[in-house]
Specification:
The protein has 111 residues and is mainly α. The chain is built from four helices and no strands. The radius of gyration is 15 Å and the shape is flat.
Amino acid sequence: MTVLRSIMLFALAAVAEIGGAWLVWQGVREHRGWAWIGAGIIALGLYGFVATLQPNADFGRILAAYGGVFVAGSLIWGMVFDGFRPDRWDLTGALVCLAGVAIIMYAPHSS
């Protein structure tokens, strides 16, 4: 149950951070305005809060593992919202990152 909770929190964090960054991008780069930028800033703040809900209390471990989730999540976000089509190297890199997440978060640690 703890691993499932952790995975769900990583997914929620990815939506908040990647979505927030995308909203800011849209507001600035696509000239959609301050409402988009403001919504993005709020979502980015929510990401910071969601990260604190992870069952593991090691900040460095959580943020290091989240980096891999961010890589894979960013590719998925780009596919869904921007029509991005990753190539085999993008997908291979994302899988390597997710393998790193699994090792960092869910392998037995001495501490």
